[in-house]
Amino acid sequence: MRKFIRCFALTFVLCQLIASCASMGSPDGGRYDEEPPVVVSSTPLNGAVNSQRKKISIHFDEYIKLENANEKVVVSPPQTETPNIRAVGKQVKIDLYDTLRPNTTYTIDFSDAIVDNNEGNPMGKYTFSFSTGETIDTMEVSGTVLAAENLEPVKGMLVGLYPLDSLWNDTVFTSAPLTRVSRTNGCGQFTIKGVRSGDYRVFALQDQDGNFFFSQKSEAIAFDTVRVTTSSRPDLRPDTVWVDSTHIDRIRMVPYIHFFPDDLVLNSFLEGGQDKHLLKTERLVPENFTLYFTAPQDSMPVIQGLNFDPACLLAEPREHCDTITYWITDTLVAHSDTLQLQLSYFDTDSLGIDQWYTSDTLTLFPKTSYAKQQKERQKKIEEWEKDREKKMKRAKEPLPPEKNPYLETFLEVAVKPSGSIDPNQNVTFTFSEPISALDSSLVHFFQKVDSQYVDCPYLLLPVEGELRQYCLYAEWEPKAQYLFEADSLAFKGALGHTNKSFKQELRVRSADEFGAIFIRLVGAGDQDSCVVELLNKSDKPVAKQLAEKGRADFYYLKPSEYYLRMFIDRNGNGIWDTGDYRLGLQPEEVFYFPQPIPVRAKFDVEQSWDFRSIPRAKQKPVAITKQKADKQKKIKDRNRERERELNR
User: Fold this and answer.
1) What is the longest distance spanned by two Cα atoms in the chain?
2) Residue 430 in contact with residue 416, Cβ under 8 Å?
3) 290 - beta bridge partners?
């Protein structure tokens, strides 16, 4: 009898397992599960009042899981100690560790994180709420966060409110946590729920330290000085009823409560004056080393050489002095495998104050030592000699004398652009080391006239702020051909190397190969200084013009699709400037033309642009928007397809 009972029980369990597997859906194990999870109960009830429970359970009609919970689930008011939120079988369990505030509405916004365990059917957007007081707050505030510099939607940014009550002051964003919070989705959109009726200020924060207020310069922020007043009204919205995945049955109007404001736009930015620290030092080759800082230096660092004289160093800073390369002009020092130095520079202390700081001893080793360089050079010399001997043996006639090119190191040069150039371009020469001298008598420039090259006026000048670049300027004529020649020894480098003679032929493209765009700004004030940028398909500037009297003209454009960005240059420095919260200063306003502008050869495009006519959240073209919308979760309509397969 016992054996019979065991066999019966085992058979029953196996049958249940088979039926369970079949119900998951497989060709052909039964219908697919296409029903989303449904909440059947919760403790406390959703919308409960006078609740003091810190342990919350939400029960569903099937096994569920949470997807990207850390990214999507937001608890408001924000919790100092991170809540424990997890899926357990058919439940979601939440443990709150902070002390519950009196007379406060708590919301746990799951967004679309809840899906069933078998097929991943999404429940849809779901928010659980309860109140510790007599009433529950139901107002909502919505909007979008955009990157101020390029109007990119900002995903995953914290957005929150401070009430404008008797406790409000302008420093609260830098001292106290936000009172209600939400997080932006892939479109930069946010909805703050469970808001009490009243007046608020709205802020956004890329919260790096988890304290829910602005405490570090490295945190991106956004703020709005406008008072936000919550309100709501009954409204209707369209709801599409589908026959199947491709056919619409009807569109019905569904009543709902419309909460305001729902169109806020916050401009996210990093403040200037970021914390200054030495990020790293790097010495790839013996002849130079590079210092990398986390932010621009206000002045050049001071180097004290401990085993060399720093007078042999030639500094090549980038534009903002956040990266500085030092060239070693003394060959004995350069060939040393070890450089020891102390570095003095501005460093930001724990209080956010920039102070002059002197480092401990820094020891720099070249990644490729001088000895290794010489060994590799000698190897190339010997390989060339062997190859030369082989050629001489195979040759029927004596070969002309030829000097081994590896016996001497020359100054290298890169020319850009090379070959064909546009009529409005100039030619840049970039050398392998800083240039210490130029013998202009060894440089020549010609224009081809009737198949003969004749002398042509030109200027060859060092590029401002660059130690290794020279620029060739000339009155370029469309369709004309030019020749630039530099004899050997024309350029001398700071490390003692000179150039080999070289020639560069240049052909100026015909004006018929280009088009033009003429922009007319509508709505620009007489005092507005507007900088218009022409962008390529990667959202990178290819040309920039200061609009004069509301006009910006771009000539000699290659046939392509272009995009437009414009910013109002408040201080007239020609570059986009960020904001400053403590000064109440917003970043300079940026606008995008909402569609591409095609350019064809030999055609001019006249384009009027009313840059304030479209809300900025809808301006940037999708084609050049890098931050794409989150993929929408949908229930897979696989049963219909299964039925079609079975009926064939």
Assistant:
1) 115
2) yes
3) 282, 325
Neighbours of 69 (CB within 10 A): 16
Q: Which two tokens stand for residue 458?
A: 């030109």
pTM of the model: 0.84
Contacts of 176 (CB under 8 A, 6+ apart): 162, 213
pLDDT of residue 320: 79
Which residues have C-beta within 8 Å of that of residue 74, sequence separation ≥ 6?
A: 108, 109, 111, 181, 182, 183
Give kind and range of the element (H or E) at residue 376: helix 370-394
- H or E element in which residue 431 lies: strand 427-431
- Residues 522 and 256: their CA atoms lie apart, in Å, by 38
What is the CB-side half-sphere exposure of residue 150 using CA atoms within 13 A?
A: 15
d(CA 20, CA 36): 18
- Across-strand partners of 94? 56, 85
- E runs forming strands in 164-247: 180-183, 189-195, 199-205, 221-223, 228-229, 231-242
Nearest Cα to 559, choosing from 604, 595, 520? 604
Residue 610 neighbours by CB distance under 10 Å: 13
- How far apart CA 493 and CA 57 sit, in angstroms, is 74
Give the integer Cα–Cα distance in Å for 380 and 602. 52
Find out whether 446 and 483 touch, Cβ atoms under 8 Å: yes
Distance separating alpha carbons of residues 24 and 29, to the nearest angstrom:
8
Among 214, 205, 202, 210, residue whose Cα is nearest residue 173? 214
User: Could you say which residues of the chain have pLDDT below 50?
Assistant: 13, 18-24
Residue 569's contacts (CB-CB under 8 Å, 6 or more residues apart) are: 529, 530, 531, 546, 575, 576, 588
Q: CA distances (Å), 96 to each of 40, 44, 104, 323, in order?
A: 22, 13, 14, 46
Look up residue 479 and give its DSSP letter. Answer: T
The helix/strand/coil state of 23 is helix
Q: Tell me, what's the pLDDT at 170?
A: 86
At 23 the pLDDT is 45
What DSSP state is assigned to residue 127?
Answer: E
Place of tokens 């390989």: 383
Contact 161, 45 (CB under 8 A): no
pLDDT in the model for residue 647: 66
Q: Tell me the C-alpha to C-alpha distance, in Å, between residue 360 and each of 225, 269, 343, 405, 471.
A: 45, 34, 8, 43, 41
